[in-house]
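dumping this here before i forget
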Amino acid sequence: MPVVSGHGFGYQVVDGFTEAYQISLGAFVVCLELLSMYPESGIPILHWLLATKKQVDRAVELGCYFSIGPAMINSVRAKKVVSWLPQNRVLLEADGPFAKTNGRPALPSDVVLVIRFLSELWGETIEQVQGRLAMTFKNLVL
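structure:
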């Protein structure tokens, strides 16, 4: 069985989803370590993050932003992770054509599903969520 390692971390890869998930989380641990070693390397945006609360907190400390797509809100685990994210670090993404929404490739217009989910999660109107997301994007790129 191959071993993947990086900066003092080692992970064993075996067949199956659980092992792939473990290596993915292992890669995230290495990613956080590298971000802490190179704080001037830019603003990190983490895509479809599935992590522990402690890892999310560390990513926030390191200045990370988090992209959320419509397929992500169909996962109970992913929704829990989204609930831990600071509202001012959340960005939208469609993640199509790779991700699926309602059995078809996700489209940019499907982000409205994420906006509705965030509206419920944050206890805000659709308009408030849209304004918050727009401000987050502006703060990131300006």
